[in-house]
Amino acid sequence: MNEKNLKPVYQPIIHLETNRVLGFEANIIGLEEDGTELRYPDLLKRNIKNLDFIARDKAITQFKIRQKGFKLFVNAEPEEMDIPLFYEDVDLTNVVLEITENSSMKNPTRTNERITFLRRKGLEIALDDFGSNKQNYDKLSISPDFIKLDKLFIKEEGLLRKMASLTGDYKVILEGIEDTKFVDIGKELGIMFGQGFALGRPMPYEEVTTKIINGDYQVMEYN
């Protein structure tokens, strides 16, 4: 499989109180030769190196609606930010970099310096899968703009309540919402944002823009 068979898709991140859209998380799907979605998606990660980089690069290039205020969430490993030319020539306004699950910060000082530099260009940081690994707590030192609660907490309401209480004043995104009852629970716990199939499935860019034009998606603005 080559890059022409890789297609970015975008899943909305919704403000639970207003149902407005904060932004979209970019992922990538593989396509069969006939244009249908790859039947065995796990093959992507096994056979394509730098999949996150390809997905991120395609998304940042394609996602023009950042100019309308919608944020683009993309995945990265901390060590990638140590690369000197990491998006230095790209406008990063409304781009949110998700520090991925189980990633390690080999040089925390250097990583924090790079994050500070990239933030001046508009970049924001999300700490992904918070609570799934002790290393996530260590990464709070980077002062993330958003925290994404791991979807495993959806399965245990008591744990969800405990984790929500630990996130303090951070802007929290609850992942894995596949039942609307968790929208109500999230609002009760003061969680601002949600993501999951009950709120919107991943979709091609063309479908995203159509929904925006039709008024189905309205941007969530906040200070």
Automatic annotation (TrEMBL):
Residues annotated as domain EAL: 1-216
A Pfam family of this chain: EAL
SMART domains: EAL
CDD domains on file: EAL
PROSITE patterns hit by this protein: EAL
Domain of life: Bacteria
InterPro entries (UniProt xref): Cyclic-di-GMP_PDE-like, EAL_dom, EAL_sf
Gene3D superfamilies associated with the record: EAL domain
GO MF terms held by the record: cyclic-guanylate-specific phosphodiesterase activity
PANTHER family tied to this protein: CYCLIC DI-GMP PHOSPHODIESTERASE PDEF, SIGNALING PROTEIN
Protein name according to UniProt: EAL domain-containing protein
Species this chain originates from: Peribacillus deserti
